Amino acid sequence: MLRTISQRLSSRCMSLRQKHTLPDLPYDFNALEPVISAEIMQLHHQKHHQTYVNMLNQAEEKFMEAKEKNDLKTMIALGPVLRFNGGGHLNHSIFWQNLSPDGGEPEGELLAAINKDYGSLENMKNIFSAATVAIQGSGWGWLGYNKTTKTLAITTCANQDPLEPTTGLVPLLGIDVWEHAYYLQYKNVRADYVKNLFKIINWKDVSGRLVAAKQ
Amino acid sequence: MILDEELFKRKANLSSIDKMFRTLSQRVWPSRTVVVRQKHTLPDLPYDYNALEPVISAEIMQLHHQKHHQTYVNSLNQAEEKFMEAKEKNDLKTMIALTPQLRFNGGGHINHSILWQNYFPKGGEPEGDLLKAIDANFGSFDTMKNGLSSSAVSLQGSGWTWLGYNKSTNSLAIATCANQDPLEPTTGLVPLLGIDVWEHAYYLQYKSVRADYVKNIFKIINWKDVADRLATARQ
User: Fold this and answer.
1) CB–CB of B197/B155 below 8 Å?
2) pLDDT digits over B188-214, tens only?
3) Burial class (CB in 10 A: 0-12, 13-18, 19+), B90
4) Quick check: is B31 in a domain?
5) In terms of domains, do B114 and B192 share one?
6) Contact residues for B137 (Cβ-Cβ < 8 A; gap 6+)
7) What is the CATH number of the domain that holds B154?
8) How far does B48 lie from chain A, in Å, by closest CA?
9) Residue B29 pLDDT grade (very low, low, confident, very high; cuts 50, 70, 90)
10) Is the peptide bond before A101 cis (omega within 30 degrees of 0)?
11) Do B208 and A48 count as a contact with CB atoms less than 8 A apart?
12) What residues of A are in contact with residue B203 (Cβ under 8 Å)?
């Protein structure tokens, strides 16, 4: 009797699942100019990221409905939609925090890790830039942390594939190279966008993520 | 080599010259199939940059043609150059490592070369054999348009949606390809009509509203070109 009651309650709790919401930017839309225009920031946040949030909520809703009916085929079929929109939400939520009008320079543990794994900040930036610019199609370049080997790593993901579920690396710093992230301002010259992005990195946030990953 | 032959055939429709070229090169240089490889070049647009306005702006057409497509052509030539150098040295690892670049840039060149021909400022409607095939496979032109549109709008990331022809079943099909994966090498379908949904194809004008771009594209389709491609595929 108790088990049946708790099962009924837990399914009720699942239906009171909180919806994902669009996080606020920690700065105004124009704060990252001239590196990223206010127009891009506003579209990127209020249209693109908002759409991932809305679609993620819809996908989760459908997933829960399918689960209630034990409809495994539909649950599986929803995988790509969850990955694409869930990834979009995860990635952009990190991205807004990764950027700042006055982000400073890497220091302390983060700088030590960069120097250890890449020799210098300059070298890390060069490798990171090259990998990110070379992405074919839409995707993200990532500086990540490998918990197993306790090293930094630079890698890329396609579309909105989120770094950690896809590779196991903990995301520290992401560079969005979907064309919507830069085209209005930089047109096809992705390399200029990536180069300029390093002027507005919030290195304190990147450090904070490394510290948290090491715990 | 294969890319050159296909494009040449398409432009000149002179298969006998093509045969003669192949026989000649085999007779004179029996041990090598490629000697003087021609570089790929950016095809001219059959209309001015502003000809497709207001559906596609002149700015987009110019960037799309002179920057994006040109870059695929340049990178393709470079990749083929490196491939041939590796082949001369029997460096199989490098040849294999180059295939993604060949696919991406070769696909970009093939896809965009088709795209420029698929457009026509005055638009139109499908007729004749093409319309018959559309009706046979989709029920109606509108149903086909809806299928193609929803496929294009829901494509995740960068890619193309295609109306293609299946030679084995003699039927039309709607398919999508990621990035610049070219339709025929990837799926076997012969490309008839492509919709480019990379953001560079529409963002300057339509921003995030891909659906509006896809809807408007149907106003400038060169259905004669689409019909020709079907006729050729059926030969």
Assistant:
1) yes
2) 999 999 999 999 999 999 999 999 999
3) exposed
4) no
5) no
6) B144, B171, B172, B173
7) 3.55.40.20
8) 20
9) very low
10) no
11) yes
12) 179-180, 183-184
